[in-house]
Specification:
Radius of gyration: 17 Å
Number of helices: 2
Largest sheet: 11 strands, mixed, barrel
Helix content: under 10%
């Protein structure tokens, strides 16, 4: 089965503390994304699952498999070019929590390599996230150029139950105004922790924590 690399670095400041992680994944031709998120610096009170793990998969719209034969962004750009993306995450029931992200992805014949920067505060959001429910991301054209994305996700806390997340953002790239269609992307992320789960203890020390992640990413024409 054909596969392409999906690798990147994410860093920034959450709750006034440094965050740092590396993504090492592969995107398969059937629309599956699989691999590891290696966390090296973890702020207290922050579990990257509150971002529906989209901090490490936001560029995946470029590689999402279409169910109707239309080209994805990667194919449209012939596997060559740059995508700039941004996202803002808010939580209707947690008004003190808000996280922003901006990233740059470089496309090549081998896949995608990116760099993300995130910043924000988690307020009273819990860290004991055990599930991310499947969700849709809507991608539409903006009048001012580029593509706009919107998503509503549900993450599940072991102690507090379901928590709603609202995500808005953009994709910009060369040739964006001629991109031929708008679509939905279906995400179904699952994850597990390899080794000690520092999200539960909220006591991270020097070393690293590996998050094993899988999701299917399928685009559907509107």
């Amino acid at each position: 089965m054909t596969r392409k690399k999906y690798v990147g670095q994410t860093d920034g400041t959450i709750n006034s503390q440094p965050y740092e992680s590396e993504t090492i994944m592969e995107m398969f031709e059937n629309g599956n994304l699989e691999g590891d998120i290696i966390v090296r610096k973890l702020p207290s009170g922050f579990n990257l699952a509150i971002l529906s793990l989209s901090n490490s998969s936001q560029k995946i719209a470029a590689l999402s498999r279409s169910d109707d034969g239309n080209p994805n962004i990667y194919e449209y750009l012939d596997g060559n070019g740059t995508i700039i993306s941004s996202r803002i995450y808010t939580y209707p029931d947690y008004p003190d929590a808000s996280i922003s992200q901006i990233g740059k992805a470089i496309l090549s014949k081998e896949g995608i390599e990116y760099k993300n920067t995130i910043n924000g505060f988690t307020g009273s959001l819990p860290t004991d996230i055990i599930e991310i429910k499947p969700y849709f991301q809507e991608v539409t054209k903006r009048k001012e150029g580029g593509l706009q994305l919107r998503a509503s996700t549900i993450i599940v806390s072991e102690s507090l139950g379901e928590i709603k997340t609202e995500i808005i953002g953009t994709y910009t790239f060369e040739g964006e105004n001629e991109f031929p269609y708008q679509y939905y992307i279906e995400h179904s992320p699952t994850f597990s922790i390899e080794g000690e789960n520092h999200f539960r203890s909220n006591n991270f020390f020097e070393g690293e924590m590996i998050i094993k992640m899988k999701q299917s990413v399928i685009s559907k024409k509107r």
